[in-house]
Design brief:
By secondary structure, the protein is of the alpha+beta class. The chain has one domain. It is built from two helices and two strands. Helix 1 packs across helix 2. It is elongated and about 40 Å long. The two termini are 14 Å apart.
Amino acid sequence: MAGSTAKEMRDQVGDLMEKKLQELPFLDKIDTYTKPGFLAMSVTFKDTTPPSQVPALSINCARNWATFTTICLQESKARR
């Protein structure tokens, strides 16, 4: 969200996206980095994740990134 502070990015987008990503199976941790107008996330799966599941989980994250972003932006606007 252009013009947003790092705190606004975290509060309005990052926290909502982390909540959605926590629904993923085998999730170990999410690292989030924000700066004004920018947000990046790193998703780590548990060591016990079956190797056969890793490609599907990665693809699921990538495919749903746009959906997560849209949902978070809508929820963020609704809270204003």
